[in-house]
Amino acid sequence: MYDLSLLASIPSNLTNLLVPGAEGLLRLRSLFAIGIHDIPLLETLRSNDYGSNASTEGEQDSCGWVACTTDEIITTKASLYDLIVELPPNYDAPPAQKRWPTIKTSDGAQVKATQRDVSRYRLLHHELWKYRHNSPDTNGDIDSDDDQMALLTRTETREADDNFAEIYDDSVVESTTWSRLAYSGFMWWASAGEADSYTTKERERDREVLGDLSSYGEGLHTAIIAYFHRITSVLINDLSALIERADEDSSDEDPEILAITKDDISGLMLDTWSEADKAFIQEFLYMYFGRRAVVDGTSLECCGVRIPIF
User: Fold this and answer.
1) What is the pLDDT of residues 14-70, one digit of tens each?
2) Fewer Cβ close by (within 10 Å): the C or N end of the chain?
3) Burial class of residue 81, CB neighbours in 10 A (0-12, 13-18, 19+)
4) CA distance linking residue 15 with residue 32, whole number of Å
5) Do 42 and 73 touch, CB atoms closer than 8 A?
6) Count of C-beta atoms within a 10 Å radius of residue 109
7) Where does the chain show beta strands of DSSP type E?
C-alpha cells in the first residue's frame, strides 16, 4: 500500500509548475488495510473531498485516499470511491490460469489500458526479465564475450516475448481502432513495408524513459517507482512547456484554451489513438494547471477516403 501511494504521488520538485492551490492534489492519503468498520470514516473523507475540503486536525488536505480491503461489501458502496482495482489472488498460478488486475469506476465502467500502455508494459516486462535472469544472486557470473552476450540477449528477448504472450489478456486493453489499422496499413504501403517512423520514435522515447533498471543501486522496487515518477515528470514538464510556449505565441481572444496536437499527445507518452487519453489530458490540464484544452485532430486521404488520425 505504501508503494501504491508513492506511485500515485507527484514529485515535489514539480510543484512549482502547477497552478497555485494544487498542493492538495500532490499525494493520496494512505489508509492501508480497511474493513466494513471503516465505512463511517470513508463517508466522512468522501464528504470532505467533495464538500468543504476540510481536514481533521493534524492532517493535510489531499485529493483523496488509497487503501486495500478484503471486504467485498465495500465495493457495493459506490458512493465511497472513484476507482477500484481488483488484484486477483493468483500471482503464483500457471500462466493459463492467471488473470490481470482490472480497474473499474464506481459506476461499473471498466478502465482499460491503451495500446501504448501495453507497448510500455512489454518494455518493462523485458527489463524485469533481464534483471531476474542476469542477477548475480540467481544466475552467477555471465560470460562477457560479445558474441555470447548477443546470443543471450536474443534468447532472453524471445523468452520474454513468449512469457508475455502467455500472460497477455486483451480483455483489459482497448481494442485497436479501425482508423489506426487503416493508418498502419497505409503507412506500410506508402513506405514499401518499412517500419513506421512515428511508431519507432514513440518506442525509442518509451525506452529512453524506462532506462536500465539494473543500474539502480537502491534496488528493483526503487527503480520501478523512479520509472513511474519519470513518466509523471515527462507529463508535467512537457505540459508546462506547452503552456509557456502557447502563452508566448498566443494572439487568441481566449488564451485560457490550450490547443493539443497529435504530436503533443505522443510526446506526453500518451496514446494518440485513444479517446480515453484525450479525455484524460483535458481533465488533467484543468485540475493541475487551471487550463482548458481542445485536442486538434488530423487526417490523411487514401483513395479519396479521409481517415481521422486522432
Assistant:
1) 889 998 888 778 888 889 899 999 999 999 988 876 654 444 433 444 568 889 999
2) N
3) middle
4) 25
5) no
6) 9
7) 29-33, 65-68, 83-86, 102-105, 110-111, 257-260, 292-295, 299-302, 305-308
Angle at 222 between CA 93 and CA 271, to 5 degrees: 75
Cα 88–Cα 98–Cα 80 angle in degrees, nearest 5:
20
Residue-wise pLDDT for 70-97, tens only, equals 998 998 999 999 999 998 876 677 766 7
**Residue 255 and residue 259: Cα distance in Å, rounded?**
10
The span from the CA of 285 to the CA of 283, in Å, is: 5
pTM of the model as a whole? 0.79
All three cell numbers of 34, joined, read 480497511
Terminal CA-to-CA distance of the chain, rounded, Å?
36
